[in-house]
């Protein structure tokens, strides 16, 4: 064995240290885990963005459909209800309609 400055070199220097191998393996595994986590986060962000985009489009379609079809229907129904209420108020103020009079012809 070779000696350095009067000291003896350890016999196991030719073999890599077990702790160094384990820490290198652990760091490579943890970096692959980190990479997988980053990919998962990127995929989740992409899916979330697409979901928000499609939800916004669906909301726009629903809102415009309501404005074009449902709102005019509600306005018409409200007008009819107001007309019925107006007729009921007039009938209450004026009283019931008189019975129709029968027209008799000239006496024979």
From TrEMBL:
The protein's name in its UniProt record: Mitochondrial import receptor subunit TOM9-2-like
The scientific name of the source species is Coffea canephora (Robusta coffee)
What InterPro entries does the entry give?
Tom22_pln (IPR017411)
Q: Which UniProt keywords apply?
A: Membrane, Transmembrane, Transmembrane helix
Mind telling me which residue stretches traverse the membrane in this protein?
58-75
Record field: compositional bias (Low complexity): 21-32
Segments carrying the region annotation (Disordered) are 1-33
């Amino acid at each position: 064995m070779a000696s350095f400055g009067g000291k003896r070199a350890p016999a196991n220097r030719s073999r890599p240290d077990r702790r160094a191998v384990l820490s290198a393996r652990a760091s490579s595994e943890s970096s692959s885990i980190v990479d997988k986590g980053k990919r998962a986060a990127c995929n989740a962000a992409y899916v979330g963005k697409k979901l928000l985009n499609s939800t916004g489009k669906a909301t726009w379609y629903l809102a415009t459909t309501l404005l074009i079809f449902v709102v005019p229907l509600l306005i018409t129904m409200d007008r009819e209800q107001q007309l019925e209420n107006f007729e009921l108020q007039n009938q209450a103020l004026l009283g019931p309609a008189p019975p129709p009079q029968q027209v008799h012809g000239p006496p024979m």
